[in-house]
Amino acid sequence: MIGRVLIVDDDPDFCALLAAGFRMHGLESVTSTSASEALGSLASGGFDAVLTDLQMPGMDGIAFCQQVATHHPETPVVVMTAFATLETAIAAIRADAYDFIQKPLHLEATAVRMQRVVRERRLREEVKLLKQEIAARRPLTGVIGTSPAMQEVFDLIDRVAETDASMLITGETGTGKEVVARTLHERGRRRTGPFVGVNCSAIPEGLFESELFGHAKGAFTDARSERPGLLTQAEGGTLFLDEIGDLPVSVQPKLLRALEERVIRPVGSNKEVPIDIRTICATNVDLETAVAEGRFREDLFFRINVIHVALPPLRSRGGDVLLLAQAFLERFAAQNGKSVVGIQASAAERLLAYPWPGNVRELRNCIERAVALTRFEQIAVEDLPEKVRAYSRSHVVLASDDPSELLTMDEVEQRYIARVMEAVGGNKTLAAKVLGFDRKTLYRKLERYVG
Question: What is the CATH number of domain 314-389?
Answer without folding.
Answer: 1.10.8.60
